Structure formats: structure tokens, C-alpha cells
Amino acid sequence: MSINSLKAESNFESLSETQFQNKLELANEKRKQLLARAAEFYDQDLYDLYASSALRFGADSQLQIAYINSSGSDYREALQNYQKFVSFQEEELKPVEQEIRAIAGEMRGIKEREAEARSKQRELQEEERFKAERKELVDKLYEALDAIYAQIPQEAHDAGMSTAIAMETYLPELVGKAQLIEYYIKKFDDVDLPSHLTAIKKDLKDRLDI
Prior knowledge:
- This protein is 82% helix and 0% strand.
- It is mainly alpha-helical.
- It has two domains: 3-122; 124-208, no CATH class.
- The longest helix is centred in the middle third of the chain and has 75 residues, at 75-149.
- The chain starts with a helix and ends with a helix.
């Protein structure tokens, strides 16, 4: 890469999308003006004659030479005109079109980066919502479990009973529900996708009304 290319790339990196749009409009206007001045560089009719005959007979063939000369034009003049056309394309028009493509490419890059940033932001927001909803459900499960355990009478604690024995002794009708809540609390360890969360929410609503 040339020093000038590096400088141009460095300058591009510091430009905003609006500045790129202005540069693109200027470059397109420059191209439009160049095309309007094409007659200053070559003769369009003579170029068309040379190009069509080259396609028909082969460039610089005897048949092409004879055809151009018989058409009232001079072959050497047509060839020189064609070379002027090539010079115009390469030296005048091509640099401007390369600039237009470079600017357009940079603008596409900006839009792609912006789209990627928006996508990542949405992903982060969705992840935060997912985590918050999962935590809320786990908290509700713990609250429901604590509410059951809170019904264990003090005498069970005084006797040194384990929670499981105390539940079997004093709250047998709630053992199944407590075990189910504990099952779902552990199940949340494997809930890492929104689809999993949706499924477990339906289960909690149907089986525990949570």
C-alpha cells in the first residue's frame, strides 16, 4: 500500500457518515462533469465506429481498416481517437470512480458496524431481561419455600429436628409441594435459554401457580 493510500485510509477512519455522504456527492458530481466534458478528450462517433468495427471484424484487422476507411473516416485517426478514449477512461474517469467506490465502501462499513452494534445491544438487553426474569422466578420459589418452612412449629426446632423430619411430622400435606419447589429451584441451574424459561414458567403456573 502506498503512503498516499495509507493517508487516505487514515483520513477516512476519522470521517462521519454525513461527511462521507458529502464526499460521495462531490465525487459523483465530479464524475458527472467529466462525462459531460468527454468530447474534449475524444470523439464519441469515431470511437463508436472503431469499437463496433473491432467487435465485428477484429481490432486492427485488415477488414476493420478497410471498413473504417470506406466509411469516410481515416483508420489512423480512429485508432488515435480510441487511444484518447482509453486515456480518458484510465487517467480521468477511473480515479474518480475508484474514489466513489472507496467512499461507498466506507459508508457500507459504517452501516454494517452500526447494525452490528445495534444487534449486540439488543442481545445484551435480551440477556439482561432473561436474567432478571429468571431471578424473579427463582426468588418467588424461595419465597414460597420459605413460607412453607415458616409454618414448622418452634417445638420442632427446639427438639433439633431436621427440616425434612419436621415437615414429615408437622406438615405432611405440604411435603410434596416443598419437594416440587426444591426440584424447580435446582432445575433453574439448567435454564440458560429463553425457550427453556418459557417452558418452565408454564410448568410453574400449571403445577404451583407461581
